Structure formats: C-alpha cells, structure tokens
Amino acid sequence: MQFRIRALDLSNRITQIQVEASDEASARAQVQADGLTVLSASRARTLTLTRQRFPVLLFCQELLALLRSGLSLVEGLEVMAEKEGRTLSRTVLSSLIDALRQGKTLSMAMSSQTEVFPDLLVAMIRASERTSDLDQALERFVAYSEQLDTLRGKLVSAATYPVILLGVGSLVVLFLLVFVVPEFSKVYEDISTDLPLASQWLLAWGKFVKAHSMLLGVGLVAFIAGVVWVSSQAAFRQQLMAQFERMPGVGSRMRVFRLARFFRTVGMLLRGGIPVVQSLELVRELLPLPMQQSLSRALLSIREGRAASDAFTDVGLSTAVASRMLRVGERAGNLGDMMERIAAFHDEELTRWLDSATRLFGPLLMLVIGLAIGGVVVLMYLPIFQLAESLQ
Known about the structure:
Elements: E1 2-8, E2 14-20, H1 24-33, E3 37-43, H2 45-53, H3 56-68, H4 73-83, H5 87-101, H6 106-111, H7 119-131, H8 134-187, H9 197-211, H10 213-231, H11 234-246, H12 250-271, H13 276-282, H14 289-303, H15 308-315, H16 320-332, H17 335-391
Antiparallel strand pairs: 1-2, 1-3
Helix pairs in contact: 3-4, 3-8, 4-5, 7-8, 8-9, 8-12, 8-17, 9-17, 12-17, 14-15, 15-16, 16-17
C-alpha cells in the first residue's frame, strides 16, 4: 500500500512524498533513512478511489468464465483487455499480462497492484497456485462477494423506507415552520384576545422568521454543509457507530452482523487452503478497533496451541451458537465450512430481525411525523377556533 508523507528535508523545507510500504511504520522508516524528518503520514486516498473504479468482482466473474471455457490464463486476460473500453481497466489488465509473460505468478502480479486488488483475493489466488485450482478460488471469491452484496442490499432496502419517510416528513414540517407559519402570523397581528401559550410561541417564531429570513437561510445552508462535512469524517462515523452499539437491541445486532462477516471471510480463506493464523491476520481490518484487540488476544492463544473455538469464546468473538458449531467443525476437520454455515445462520437471523423491525418502525415513524405535522397545524388554527367561540 502507498502512504503520503509530509516531512522536513535537509534545508528545513516541508516536502510531500509518496512511498510504497506494508504499513505506516515501514513508510516512516523509509523516509527517515533518507535523512528526512517525518511530520505526518497517512494512507494515500487515491488508492481507495482506484479500487472503487476497477470492478474486481466483474473481473473475477469474467476470468472464471473464460478459464472454464478452456482458455489459458494469459489468453483469458488478453480477451478481457481487448474488449475493455475503460482506460484504467485496460491498464490493469495489461500490467497483469506483462507480469505473467515475465514469468511471475498471478498472485505476484496482483500483489504489485495493491491499490486495485484486495488482500483477500491475492491471498486466495496465492493459495490456489499451490493446488492448481485457480477457478475454484475465483468461484469462492465471487460467491463471497455476492453474499456480502446480498446482505448489504437487504440492509439498504430495510433502511430506505424509514429514511425517505423521515426526510419527507422533516421537509413538510420545515415548510410549515418557514413558509406557512410566518404568513399566519400576519393574520393574528391585530387580534386582541389572549392566544394559547403554545400558539403565541409558534406565532412568535413566525415573526422571527419573517424578520430574519436571510440570516436563517444562510444559517440553514451552513448547517447542512456542516452536517455533510462532519459526516464525512471517519472519527465522527466511528463515534456514531459506537453510540448505535450502545443502544439496547441494536448494538447486539450490529455485533452479530460484524461477526457473521468475520466468520464468512475466515471460512472462505480456510476453504481456499490458507492456514488459520494467516486467515485471521488477513481479516483483522474487517473488524472495529475493540474487536481487533480481541482478535489479537485470540491469535495469541491460537499460536499457543489452544483451539480456535475456545480462543474466540474467551475474547468475545463468538456467540453461543457459533461456539458450539465451531467445536463440531474442529472435531470434524471442516472448520472453514462450519464458519460459513455460522455466517449463513446469523445472516438469516439478522434478516428476520430486520423484517420485524421495519414493520414496527415504519408505522411508529409515520405516527411521530403525523403528530408533528398535525401539532403545527392545530396550533396555527387554534386562535381561529378561539376567536369563533368569543364571537358566539
């Protein structure tokens, strides 16, 4: 991976360079070896963007189809490069072809482009090269990616309706408070009767909006821009996720979702022939920081000879069902298959919970939004009702 380093050169001028290293400490050591003083080091953002642009899943699907049709690896890559119209994809494929013609393996060619191919895929390809089952490794990765996409799609679809409902309801309430209430405040300016306290507050708000409309408009735009900027910060998102995890009911489900993804990934790597310790090290970044620390303790126990099921249970990286299934998998010698079954079990459990939560949360959200809109409307018309009673 590449790192962007800001450093002081020998003439005490600030310079910015980009280096290739396995981790941040190695990147700092490389720069310091050249006599520079490191000020800061960060992962190069262009890597993430490049990985998003290159369709890794589509690449694996097409290569798998070509290999099973009888083409050699180089021939399959050449066919893919010839049909490719995007410059980036053609460049990546050409680099792979050149490396293969130089005598390198596919995993070596992929590992030289860490900004394109994920470490999990490279590790699976490297393991398959020892057993000559490249097509099966690609098939496993495709199935793994499709399963994750399916689960991600379920989560997005479950959240879409509440988000749309909340957004539309908020816009309606905002429209009433910003445009309708100020107009109603003009009608009640000359009313001499005492208005209800809540109506007085609402009408005072309308007068305030009318008198400071420009200032409020600028403030609203600044608020939206601030929310967008804060939401883009990784630290804020991590803190927000931490708060969600503290919510009763939601936190435990989020933990189960992370564990299911963890078990599925490790199971895929184990089935691909990668040892347990190496598989666990590869999936470390899939977990949040507290669970990464738990995984480090589990790795230490496994290196000392303990069973993976006991190590996961001791550090909290398991559930009651997962612990029992892991022990069965260890006795039967199919730990990889058992981990994928654990992930499937928890995925089904999470899907059922999402369906129930969506059916319950949708009507509750509609009720809250309806009460908010109805409350504003009633407070606006309440003085008219009171005036009609006084005339009678």
